[in-house]
Design brief:
Layout: H1 10-16, H2 48-60, H3 63-69, E1 71-74, H4 82-85, E2 90-93, H5 107-121, E3 134-137, H6 155-161, H7 164-179, E4 185-186, H8 210-225, E5 239-245, E6 258-259, H9 263-270, H10 274-277, E7 284-287, E8 291-292, E9 295-296, H11 301-311, E10 317-318, H12 337-342, E11 347-349, H13 354-367, H14 372-388, H15 391-394, H16 412-425, E12 427-431, E13 443-447, H17 454-458, H18 481-491, E14 495-499, E15 510-516, H19 538-548, E16 553-558, H20 566-571, E17 574-577, H21 586-592, E18 665-666, E19 669-670, E20 674-677, E21 682-687, E22 695-701, E23 706-712, H22 719-723, E24 727-736, E25 742-748, E26 752-756, E27 767-772, H23 774-777, E28 786-794, E29 797-808
Helix pairs in contact: 1-8, 2-14, 3-13, 6-16, 7-8, 7-16, 16-21, 18-21
Length: about 800
């Protein structure tokens, strides 16, 4: 682990920075001792009037009504009319769900759909209480699902600002833009204290340092919800959800993994954000997908009930993560009394079986499997939050004070906040020869594939879940980094030319190269090492080419985590860590480019909130360890006034053995521990797509059934990927159309599950098919013991070239269980 703080006076120790070293030996127990956790002073106290109103509602509710409140269902799995019968507590839009199945649906469509759900939820003729539905959304760096919204830097960049007051303003702006669409609940902030930078959600963390996370958590909650005693849950504010409880940042770089740490580490490191966010009045908490010492957090009673509710006195409710309850021992996605009994108050469900989940939960409530007291406690908490949030008085979403004020999306004042955050979050890592700031009047070459790409600079959770398949047109109120530099150059009397490939005819005075990670979210973002772009060194080649041409070069590096970039650092004269700045790319130019007076408008202020690795295998850096040896320590950051030249760095790459099991066949290589197997009526050779022999050529001769399969030496576990709606993705082209049915499948140790493909096998050019893993899981395949993650079968003739097989997020557009 990286660092921690003592058990006594935990929050005070965090804020004061007095942090003793942690014990390093994990304890195996997954049962917390609440008495060893600090008591918290909750500023949100029970209001007798609120409690009386909740009790009166509860007394009049049927058991069917109560169970309904325990369910939150994704809008892709439910219709508004369903709420006329099933009085559910909440709906949500998942990362890839949107009105009319259109991720680019305009803001009025979101409001229109919420009106429809709301109207159905309040339609009653039986005299029982009307309890309006609430809508939850992942507004993790702005109202990021809505076209036109202001997207702020992701949390990793915000952590580099060390500016809690600006965090509060970001929270308030995000709440206002969310409220403009009528939505009343944001699944934010994330207060993970990430300890292994290989994790694909590292960018959702403010810092590896619990003190930084603690200093931000309360400010973000109060920005989103308002301040208790002042503007708490007044119009323009929305419900906050602190996540993911608990230890999600300690899972060894694996999403939905297992934090094998002692209770003291769980408390003193990973709970830091909760110790400030909860006293600030956060109304909901989201338990994590992940485990602690082998037990899923969603089913850990000692933490959900013992610590969170009883020791800390949390009065709000807990909301599950995406079908996470199905991973609890003894549970499925459609049946999970153990999670409710452990302290989960509301299921988050996606899929066709939500009515089964309702029916099973109702049965268990009636037969006592879920005790009446536990059911009433969960419903009481949900009703309490709805009363405190003003849900009962708010009326239809479209009638609320900020609803329909779509000019709030990308409003000038919000963009100004975002631009300030971009300026403050950038960290200057190198400035040899004082190439920065770029002088006024300079002829600037702006290069790099990311220079004019708002989607790349915004990262994951930007219109689409993974942040992929978007263009600049999807951000009508945004500005690319290139656009900002061009404006600044012109204002300073100079010129700027965009050349993504870095080529030029007239030698520029300086080149600014913008490059970095392409967007990703959970699952797909996990990686085996911290080497930047190990398979494609085009960015490095461009930097070296410019250096060889004698062009002073500034690297603007976009990333969601610290990465090993020693070669790129050596090849650039100046190097700026810009993280994922969001839609206000002009903020980059505010710091890099001087005006006519010879000075930039702003100096660098950002200081690293994560240590940066000296070697690509330094996944975890503990600054309290005597062996702490990063390239750049936490807190590092140069300024124009304080600049230390960076010496040449070691570019040696140690041998590593870690690999990505989900990259089944990529760039001509099969995943470690796997092999292709084919034979009989099937011939297998190699062919070219992007490189020599990087693809398979498969030809069936029609003389019997034959399969082409990827076989694992040891079973692989893709349970989390299946639960997370990832797909089996195949890039292919058909060279000879099939003459018999063709299936695509996966196999566990006992059976094979398949889907039909014939309708997707017309002869033609390269294309892609994505089949959700749930299509195989729904057939009873054991996703934890997959021995053949790819099986292509036919008994007829078929010719097909395959260039890639992987498990990941499907491309934009509908995905189905096969094409008949």
């Amino acid at each position: 682990m990286r660092m921690g703080f003592g058990t006594a006076g935990a929050v005070m120790a965090l804020m004061a920075g007095t942090v003793p070293a942690l014990a390093q030996t994990p304890a195996g127990s997954a049962v917390a001792n609440p008495a060893q956790w600090p008591a918290l002073r909750m500023r949100l106290q029970r209001d007798p009037k609120v409690e009386a109103r909740v009790d009166a509602l509860l007394a009049k509710m049927s058991i069917e009504d109560k169970v309904g409140q325990l369910l939150q269902v994704d809008i892709a799995s439910i219709e508004p009319r369903d709420l006329e019968t099933y009085k559910l507590g909440s709906i949500l839009n998942g990362g890839n769900s949107a009105p009319n199945n259109d991720e680019r649906a305009p803001a009025p469509e979101w409001l229109k759909l919420f009106d429809a759900f709301y109207d159905a939820s309040v339609k009653r003729t039986d005299g029982r209480p009307v309890v309006p539905v609430i809508w939850g959304t992942d507004a993790v760096h702005g109202a990021n699902n809505i076209v036109g919204a202001t997207l702020f830097p992701h949390n990793i960049g915000l952590g580099a600002m060390r500016d809690p007051a600006l965090i509060r303003r970001i929270g308030a702006a995000t709440a206002a833009e969310t409220a403009a669409t009528g939505i009343d609940w944001s699944f934010a902030p994330t207060v993970a204290v990430v300890q292994d930078d290989r994790w694909g959600r590292t960018y959702e963390s403010y810092s590896e340092d619990p003190a930084i996370v603690a200093s931000y958590a309360a400010e973000m909650v109060e920005g989103i919800q308002g301040t208790i005693g002042k503007d708490f849950m007044k119009p323009g504010h929305v419900i906050s959800s602190v996540k993911h409880f608990l230890g999600d940042g300690g899972t060894g770089g694996r999403d939905q993994g297992d934090a094998r740490v002692p209770e003291a580490v769980l408390r003193d490191v990973h709970a830091a954000g909760y110790m400030t966010a909860l006293p600030a009045g956060a109304l909901t908490v989201m338990p994590s997908f992940s485990s602690w010492n082998g037990e899923k957090m969603t089913g850990n009673k000692s933490l959900l009930t013992g610590v969170l509710k009883e020791r800390w006195g949390f009065q709000g409710f807990t909301i599950g993560d995406w079908n996470a309850h199905g991973q609890v021992t003894g549970c499925t996605n459609e049946d999970c009394a153990p999670a409710i009994n452990a302290g989960l108050d509301m299921f988050m469900y996606s899929g066709p079986g939500w009515k089964q989940l309702y029916a099973n939960t109702l049965r268990e409530a009636k037969d006592g499997t879920i005790p009446a007291a536990r059911l009433d406690d969960a419903v009481r908490r949900i009703l309490r939050v709805k009363v405190l949030a003003g849900t009962f008085e708010a009326g239809r979403p479209s009638s609320r004070p900020l609803s329909g004020k779509f000019d709030l999306l990308g409003a000038p004042e919000h963009r100004a906040i975002a631009r300030a955050a971009v300026r403050e979050s950038m960290v200057l890592l190198k400035n040899n020869g004082s190439v920065l700031p770029v002088k006024a009047g300079a002829n600037i070459l702006v290069a790099g594939r990311a220079a004019d790409d708002i989607g790349v600079q915004s990262g994951g959770w930007s219109i689409t879940w993974q942040g992929t398949d978007v263009t600049n047109k999807d951000f009508p109120n945004g500005e690319s980094i290139w656009s900002g530099i061009r404006k600044a150059a012109t204002a300073g009397g100079g010129t700027a030319t965009l050349a993504p490939d870095g080529r030029f005819t007239k030698k520029p005075d300086v080149a600014i190269v913008v490059f970095g990670e392409t967007p990703y979210a959970e699952f797909t973002g996990d990686r085996p090492t911290l080497e930047y772009s190990p398979e494609d060194k085009g960015d490095l080649a461009m930097l070296k080419r410019l250096k060889a041409a004698g062009v002073p070069t500034v690297a603007v590096f976009l990333s969601g985590r610290p990465l090993w970039v020693n070669p790129e650092l050596n090849a650039a004269d100046a190097f700026v860590a810009a993280f994922l700045p969001g839609t206000e790319g002009g903020g980059v130019a505010d710091v890099l480019v001087a005006g006519r007076d010879g000075r930039p408008a702003h100096d660098f202020r950002g200081k690293l909130s994560f240590s940066w690795p000296k070697r690509l295998d330094q996944y975890v850096l503990n600054r309290r360890d005597p062996g702490y040896d990063p390239l750049f320590p936490i807190g590092y950051g140069l300024t124009y006034a304080a600049n230390t030249p960076l010496a040449q760095l070691d570019e040696t790459k140690p041998k590593v053995t870690a690999g990505d099991q989900n990259a089944l066949f990529v760039r001509g290589r099969i995943a470690a521990g796997a092999r292709f197997n084919s034979g009989g009526p099937l011939a297998q050779t190699r062919t070219d797509r992007n490189a020599q022999e990087d693809s398979l050529r498969l030809v069936w001769n029609g003389k019997g059934s034959g399969e082409a399969a990827i076989e694992q030496a040891m079973p692989i576990d893709v349970t989390r990927e299946s639960n997370g709606q990832l797909s089996l993705i195949v890039d292919y082209r058909v060279t000879a159309a099939p003459t018999a049915p063709v299936t695509l499948g996966m196999a566990d140790t006992a059976k094979t599950a398949t889907v039909p493909l014939n309708g997707a096998l017309a002869k033609g050019d390269w294309t892609t098919i994505a089949v959700p893993l749930r299509c195989f899981a729904d057939q009873g395949l054991k996703m934890g013991t997959i021995v053949k993650p790819f099986v292509l079968t036919t008994a007829g003739t078929l010719g097909i070239d395959v260039s890639a097989v992987r498990i990941g997020s499907a491309p934009a557009g509908p995905v189905t269980c096969g094409v008949k």
